[in-house]
């Protein structure tokens, strides 16, 4: 992948073109170590999710050689990581029959691809395709543990017919505790974590009793991966946004603001004299995303479209991105700003509300480590 803005010798955050995505390598490493160590102590296999990072360079840190099991959210990611050598990949989104050709291509390359389904029609399509292509498909049935997004309830009468239709393609059950994002404290996150575990145990027990044992019981979200303590019977845990953290994750207690490893570098392009507590930056909805999830938290935790840091990544209290247009962001201060503050050309860094859609707006990371010096660029894969 070619660089849109070629890296200059000894480039710094004062020199590179804005807006762009900045990654703090030290914070990334700390976040990776924290999650891996937590799950190692609990004795469960970890399958990191690359839906947020989408980068082989980060992949080599989170799942180092010999390359281990990983999770992806798109077949583009699966193809990208397979190209770079990963072989045990879980595509953790309900599989549509229209994607079976691409799944088959990956299987023929020797990728041990695990897929997901929650409907009899999908199961029928997978089984038929596997038979026609003479390939071994491994498919998990998605269980709804309370998130209400996809999956069947763990005690649903739909469960066994799906397993029967999958037949030899059936490999186990998976769930995602997305409702954890609605919790506000450690006790709430622990409750959701145990709901995930209970849902998988219930589903697997019922299927086993009917003659369909599960070799895989897979669960995960960043908040519950850190909160779950009783993981008996669970074979693997998934998590993704933990690599970077974001303001929403800090708001619900699964990381701190100091853990956030990504920010958007932006330049001040407007300083209206008649609005002394505001300034405009060149990072808008296309660079920051339109996510305002922190508005669901308490008023003091509402970060608008992101919190503002100085060029060194130090949080500037009282500043937040209060509005965005496509290429403009409006930063508002709780109090009037001095006239000589945030002059045109000043650079700031914005901590994202939700790292996943913010990162998806960019094609690379500009990597730093507790300084303004850009160490390298890491490209990422986007699209589907």
Write a compact overview of the structure shown.
The protein has 384 residues and is of the alpha/beta class. It is 29% helix and 23% strand.
Fraction of residues in β-strands:
15-25%
The chain-level structural class is alpha/beta
Overall shape: elongated
Query: What oligomeric state is this?
Result: single chain
Q: What would you say the CATH architecture of the largest domain is?
A: Alpha-Beta Barrel
Order of helices and strands: EHEHEHEHEHEHEHEHEHEEHEEEEHEE
What's the overall average pLDDT, rounded? 95
CATH topology (fold) name of the largest domain: TIM Barrel
Side-by-side strand order of the widest sheet: 2-9-8-7-6-5-4-3
Distance between the termini: 17 Å
